[in-house]
Amino acid sequence: xxxxxxxxxxxxxGILVDRAADKALAPIRRRLRRTPxxxxxxxxxxxxxxxxxxxxxxxxxxxxxxxxxxRGWTINTALLTLAGDLILLRYDTGQRALLMTLTTAVGxxxxxxxxxxxxxxxxxxxxxxxQQTAALTTPPAVLPQQNQTGPVTPTASG
Length: 158
Known about the structure:
Layout: H1 2-34, H2 40-51, H3 57-90, H4 96-137
Helix pairs in contact: 1-3, 2-4, 3-4
């Protein structure tokens, strides 16, 4: 029972952290989305088009899941780095400066890694969505009619 309660609490906390990260990163997300989608309407139409395709919708859901994980862990690693540094400040250790430097360096590297991964997944997701839905909603190009009489040859009269 305790493990079940802990798992439920961790899940709920994960949702809260993800919502906080989404709010914090919203301006960057909107800027990334504006590149392939000039308006919210075009983005909404693309999402509806993709949702109607059983072959592509699960792939988009998987990408969004990866994006949510990286977004949440961007906040998690920043907070864990801060907590680790505060703990090291609270307790007297012989190597406090070294431990704080290592904790901060590893924490910042992980935070940057999760942020850059989130940024890449988000930008790529918007680009792929625009490409996939453009191919589905754009009518095929009409090729010009070819000359039925054959190639034109120069005449001797000039």
